[in-house]
Amino acid sequence: MPQNQPEETGRPASGWLWTAFSVCAIGAIALFFIPAFIIRPFTHQTARGLLLAMAVRQRAPLGTLISGIACLALSLALWGTVGRWRKALLVLTLAVVAFSAVMSRLNYFEWMFHPIAGPQFIAQAESKLDSNEMIMSVRFGGDARAYPISQMAYHHVLNDVVGGVPIVATY
Amino acid sequence: MWTRTVNGTALHFYLAGINNQNFLMRDQETGTWWQQITGKAIYGPMRGAALKLVPSDELSFGEWRAEFPSGQVLAPVAKYTKEYDPNWEPDVAKLPVVISFPGTELKSRDVVIGLTIGGSARAYPWETLAKQSPILDRVNGTPLLFVLGPDGKSFRVFVSLIDGHDAEFFLQTDAHSWILLDSLTNSQWNFQGCATSGLAKGRCLDRIPALKDYWFDWRNYHPETTIYKR
C-alpha cells in the first residue's frame, strides 16, 4: 500500500522533529529576550511585566542550557534529512540559541556600568575632589567614609565594610 | 545605603537591571532581586526580606572634610575615570522619565527630600528648603528641623526636641559663622546638630534619615506621600 512506502513514513517523523526544534529554539531565545526587552532603560516597567522579567531571567541560565542541548540534538537528527538551505536555517537558529544561552549567563548591565571589584580608599588630603563636589557619607564608630557621587552615579553599587559593618552603598 | 547582612549572612550585591529609572540589584549568594530605593527583596528566594537603612548623609566634600578629618575617600578607579561625569547633577536631570504623576504640584525631575515617620511619608521640595532653611515641621507627631548646611548644598534633618521639649531653631549667619540658636535654651548649635555653647552644650539632636530624590521616584514608591507647604 502507498502509505507504507518509506518516503511517506519519513515525512511525518521529520515534521515532528521540525516542530520540536522550533519550540525549543523559540523557548531558548525567549528566555533571554523577554527579560532583556522588559528591563531596558528609559521605558516604563509595569509591576506584572517586571515580575515576569525577573521570573524568566532567574530561570534562563538552566532553561537555555536544557533547550540549547535539545535544539542541538534535534538539529543533528534533522541534518541528514534536509537540503542546503534548511541546513543554513538550522545553523543560524542554533547560533541565536547559543547567543541567548551565553547572554543569560552574562550581566550586560555591568558592561555599561562596571562594578568596583576591590574598592581602594585614600586619605582626604590625597583626594583631588573639589570642595563643592557632593559625596555620600557614612560613619561607624571611628571609621568615616566618603563616596563621591560622580563615581557612584557610574558604578551604582559598592559593597564595603565600614567599622566592621558590611554595607552596600547605592546611588 | 544599606547594611547587607541578612539572617546572619553578608550578601554581596551587583547591578542587575532597571525598574522605572530606579535600579535593581541581585545578591551573589541567593540571586534574589532587590529594589535599590526601598531595600526590599522583590523576587527570588529571599522575597519579602528588607535591608536595614544605614544612617548616611549627602554632603559637600568641603563640609565632610571639616567634620571627619581622618575620614577616607573612595579612590577613583583609573580605568573608569573618563566615565565619571563631574556634571552628573544637571546631566541626570535631563534624562527622560518613564512615569509621571500629573496633578501634583511638582515636576518629575524636581528634587525633593523625602522622609517617612511611622508610616507617614512627606516630600520637601529642595527649592523650598533652599529658600526657607531652617524649616520646622511636624510629621506624625514628631517635630522636625530641616536645615541646609553652611555650604548651601548639604542638608540634615533632626528631631527638634531638647530633653523632650519642643524647640524652635533660628539661623544666625554672617560671612564667617553659621550658628543655629534654639528658642528653649538659647544655646548655639552646629550643623551636626550638637550644641556648642549655652545651657544645652554637649547635647546632640536625634537624626532622621532622609533621602534626596527626584519627585517621580519618591512619589512612585510612596504613593501616600504629602508635600510640604510653607
List strands and helices in order, with pairings.
The complex is a heterodimer of chains A (171) and B (230).
Chain A: H1 6-38, H2 47-79, H3 84-103, H4 109-112, E1 121-123, E2 134-140, E3 143-148, H5 149-155, E4 157-162, E5 165-170
Antiparallel strand pairs in A: 2-3, 4-5
Helix pairs in contact in A: 1-2, 1-3, 2-3
Chain B: E1 2-3, E2 5-6, E3 9-10, E4 13-19, E5 22-27, E6 33-35, E7 40-43, E8 56-60, H1 61-67, E9 72-74, H2 88-94, E10 111-117, E11 120-125, H3 126-132, E12 135-139, E13 142-148, E14 155-159, E15 161-162, E16 165-166, E17 169-173, E18 178-182, E19 188-189, E20 195-197, E21 211-214, H4 215-221, E22 226-227
Parallel strand pairs in B: 11-22
Antiparallel strand pairs in B: 2-3, 4-5, 5-6, 6-7, 10-11, 10-21, 12-13, 13-14, 15-16, 17-18, 18-19, 19-20
